[in-house]
Each structure stands twice: as C-alpha cells, then as structure tokens.
RNA sequence: GGAGAGAUGGCCGAGAGGCCGAAGGCGCUUCCCUGCUAAGGAAGUAUACUGGUAACGGUAUCGGCGGUUCGAAUCCGCCUCUCUCCGCCA
C-alpha cells in the first residue's frame, strides 16, 4: 500500500508506474474515493460533536419539558449519524479495495519492460560446465538414480507432486543444513514457520488468496490458506507491532513448505521439479530502517550468491524489469542457475525490497526519537530446495551416469556420489 | 472439545450509565531545590484521522464486532485471546 498523500501529490508518477508495471489499477479513482470518504467523515464528525454536546447538556437535573426537547434533538441526530455512518463505511470499503490494487513504486533504476525477457543481466558467476557427453536433464537423472517418483505422486496427490526417495531425501536435508549454517553465521534467527496463514496476512504481504489467477490454495471455511512461501509467515510475524529502532535490522530465516496452484503453468520449462505444487524453501526476511533497505537488499543478494558459490553452481544475476516485479516489490534481483538439462538459466532465488508497502498493509512500524513510522521489509530466497536439486543434479552429473556431491556438502550428506541403481 | 475466571494507557491498577481519554501508583521528560548521590517539590507525558500558517480545535479508540440508550469503559449478544480445572491426543 502506498501513502495516500504520496498518491495525491505524485499522481502522474503513480499512474506511469502502474503502466510500466503492466498492471491494472485506477489511481484517479483512489483519490476520488479518498476525498469523498473524507468529506463524509468531516460531516460525520460535526454531527457527532453536536450529539456529544447535546448529551452533555443532560448531565444534571432538568425540567421534564427541557429534557424532552433535548432527547428529541438527540434522537434526530442519532438517526442522521447512523445514516451517514453507513454511507461512510461503504465509501471507505470501496476506497480500500481500490487502494489495494495500487502497486508499489519501482526503483528509479529498475529496468522498464513488460516481461521477464527484458530483465537486465547484471552479473555472471562461474563457468558453464562443458560435457564430453550428452548431459541429461534432472528428470532423467532422477529416474536412473531412483531419486524422485512423479508417477506415484500423480496417482496419490495429483500432477506436479512428487515423492523424494533415497539419496534425494538426504540431499534435501543436507542442503537445508548447509544453508542454515551459513545463514545463522550471518546473524539470521532460524525459524520453522507454520505452513498455514490467515488470508489477510497473505493479502498484506501482497498475495491475493482469492480469484482464478491466484497462486494460493485456500482452506475451505477457515479463512486461512496454505503458504506459498515463508515470506508470508515471516512478514506477518510483526503485524500490528511497533518496533524500537534500536532492535533493527531484524534478520529472520524460515524453513517452510510452499504450496502453489500454478494454474495454467505448463511446457518443457516447467518440467519435473521446476514448477511443482509443493516444495520446501528457506526464506530470508529483514525488517529495517527505510534508509537502510537498499543496502540490505544488496546484502541479501550477496548471501544468496555465497550459498550458490559454495556449491559451485554457475549463475547469473538479473535486475527484474518493472513488468515482472509483482505488486509489492520496489526492486527485485533473481539468481538464475545454469541448468544443463534445459541448456539455459533457470530462476533459483529471488530477493525483493518491498520498502514500506507491506508494512503499511500489515501495520508494522518502528519508533525512534523522531516518532513512529513505517519500516521497510525485504525478503529473499536462501534456497528453494527443489530447484537447487535440479541445478545440483544437472551440473554435477558424470559420464557414467552418477552425480558427484559438491565438496562443501559432503559433511552434510555423508556420501560423495550418487550412483545408478542396479 | 467441556466448565469457570479475566482482558482498561509504556507498566501496575481503580472505575459498575452522564462529573471518564479515563483516579492513583510506577516509569519517562522538563524545571525547582539540595555540595555529588539518594530523597523532595512543580508541570507535562497515548494513538490514528481531521480542521487550522500557527496558537488551538474536532472525531474515534477501555480485547474485537454488533445491539440497547438522548448519552456506554460501564448494560445485552456474539467472537477472539489469556489463565485455571476436566477430557482427548503426538
């Protein structure tokens, strides 16, 4: 949510931003509804003032006739007030709905563009492996190494679910532990968060739990939904709180399952583990002072890079273009790992600086000697385990069909190679 | 899941239809006093929205929502949370 005063002041910028982001939202309507709502409120306040004054006149002893006149006046005011209150509530609701559609402003240096093709590559790390044989993709590898069972999962749970088996189970746990160790050393407090969140929390973070295009599973009749990411549970953690500035930045990291409907997502780039309905992920989250958020954003990105450099997985970093930002993000960097199976880069992490957009919706403020104000919130993937698994299997595959385990991971797995089953 | 008790400002705690945005205490801020410290005295000390250049006003907020009333922290209904006891479970 943006500050309404900002919208009124910079209306043209806000409208351009909506257009750059390739989104539909009516900033003019928001301003109109705000002014209307306000003028009703002013009338309402005046009437309430009259009601209060009228009631105050009746405090002591009064003659019956005098009292009767005042009561009649009070009744009249009461009626007017309740009528106007209804009107006000209606307009306020409309205003809030319209307001929720307005996306965050984009960073002035974020590339302007419509879709992910226009994202700007800003960095490249590692050498793309040169194979002396035809590399397999992770689905073939998982099959020959008996690591993932998609078919049975389809029968039991539906498409885009999977069972991890054998070394893949240990590998997922090893990756989790490897990431946790790095992140704890960086000063993040580790969490395992709930996998369920209230719909208003999800909406506050910027996920719309309702509607056909929603990527969120709702739980019928409970007002809750399955989380698509621990960003929701970590970002909801301080909802409604005011935090002392001396406590900032707050750095949290949460492991959760992530559930996504992925309606309509198909095609070869969605193959296998790449786009699934359920996966596990460790998410970083930072609450900080507004003037620190750009710096924190770079910091989260550097932690993400450290994690994948440690595994020796080649990647590039892209600065996400305006059309691909999502409603909450002011700026977003994605790490894309080299995936030999597809012969291209594939997204493995994403970090967003959401500035005070989520904080306004969730009511999260900081307090210092100048008073209270909304703080800034940032999130970033430490590791999406299913996608990391793809990058690992595909980049570390050997000619004999086995997969090597990166040096730094061996202490966590206890084995240095996954071999084909006989 | 069942029964009971409770929810008031930064904290403790009074308040039981109008004199209550809310006593008193603690804390905090400023000032006075005392050679330092401790003690003492005075004043101030919630948030949001809103009117006004400002001074200063207005409205709302006593867990939440709804109701009764001319008027609700106070009465009524529903909900949430906390505590105690019982049941059930990993």
At a glance:
The chain is α+β, with helices and mostly antiparallel strands and 422 residues long.
List the helices and strands and how they pair.
Layout: H1 4-9, H2 11-20, H3 27-56, H4 64-100, E1 120-125, H5 138-144, E2 148-149, H6 150-156, E3 163-164, H7 167-185, E4 189-192, E5 196-198, H8 199-205, E6 218-219, E7 224-226, H9 230-235, E8 242-244, E9 250-259, E10 278-288, H10 293-310, E11 315-319, E12 331-339, E13 344-353, H11 357-362, E14 365-368, E15 371-374, E16 376-384, H12 385-395, E17 403-404, H13 410-413, E18 417-418
Parallel strand pairs: 4-9, 8-14
Antiparallel strand pairs: 1-11, 2-3, 5-7, 6-7, 9-10, 10-16, 11-12, 12-13, 13-16, 14-15, 17-18
Helix pairs in contact: 3-4, 7-12
This protein binds one RNA strand of 90 nucleotides through residues 38, 41-42, 44-46, 48-49, 51-52, 54-60, 67, 70-78, 372.
């Amino acid at each position: 949510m943006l500050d309404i005063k900002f919208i009124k002041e910079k209306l043209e910028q806000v409208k351009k931003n909506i257009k750059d982001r390739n989104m539909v939202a009516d900033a003019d309507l928001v301003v109109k509804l705000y002014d209307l709502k306000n003028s009703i409120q002013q009338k309402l306040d005046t009437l309430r003032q009259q009601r209060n004054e009228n009631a105050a006149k009746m405090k002591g002893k009064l003659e019956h006739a005098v009292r009767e006149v005042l009561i009649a006046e009070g009744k009249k005011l009461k009626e007017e007030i309740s009528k106007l209150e209804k009107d006000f509530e209606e307009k306020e609701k409309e205003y809030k709905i319209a307001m929720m559609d307005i996306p965050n402003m984009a960073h002035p240096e974020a590339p302007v563009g419509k879709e992910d093709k226009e994202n700007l590559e800003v960095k490249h790390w590692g050498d793309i492996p040169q194979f002396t044989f035809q590399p397999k993709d992770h689905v073939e590898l998982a099959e020959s190494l008996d690591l993932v069972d998609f078919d049975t999962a389809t029968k039991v749970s539906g498409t885009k679910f999977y069972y991890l088996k054998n070394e893949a189970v240990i590998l997922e746990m090893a990756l989790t532990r490897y990431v946790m160790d790095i992140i704890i050393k960086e000063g993040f407090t580790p969490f395992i968060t709930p996998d369920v969140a209230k719909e208003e929390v999800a909406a506050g973070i910027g996920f719309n739990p309702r509607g056909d295009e929603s990527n969120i599973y709702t739980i019928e009749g409970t007002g809750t939904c399955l989380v698509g990411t621990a960003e929701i549970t970590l970002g909801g953690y301080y909802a409604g709180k005011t935090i002392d500035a001396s406590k900032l930045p707050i750095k949290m990291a949460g492991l959760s399952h992530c559930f996504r409907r992925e309606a309509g997502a198909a095609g070869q780039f969605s193959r296998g583990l790449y786009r699934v309905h359920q996966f596990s992920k460790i998410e970083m989250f930072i609450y900080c002072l507004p003037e620190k958020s750009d710096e924190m954003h770079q910091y989260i990105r550097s932690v993400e890079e450290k994690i994948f450099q440690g595994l020796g997985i080649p990647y590039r970093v892209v600065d996400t273009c305006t059309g691909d930002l999502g409603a909450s993000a002011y700026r977003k960097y994605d790490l894309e790992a080299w995936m030999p199976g597809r012969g291209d880069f594939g997204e493995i992490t994403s970090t967003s600086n959401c500035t005070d957009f989520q904080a306004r919706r969730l009511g999260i403020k900081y307090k210092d000697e100048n008073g209270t104000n909304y703080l800034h919130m940032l999130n970033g993937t430490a590791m999406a385990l299913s996608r990391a698994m793809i990058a690992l299997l595909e980049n570390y595959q050997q000619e004999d069909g086995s997969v090597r385990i990166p040096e730094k991971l061996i202490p966590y797995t206890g084995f240095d190679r996954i071999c084909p089953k006989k």
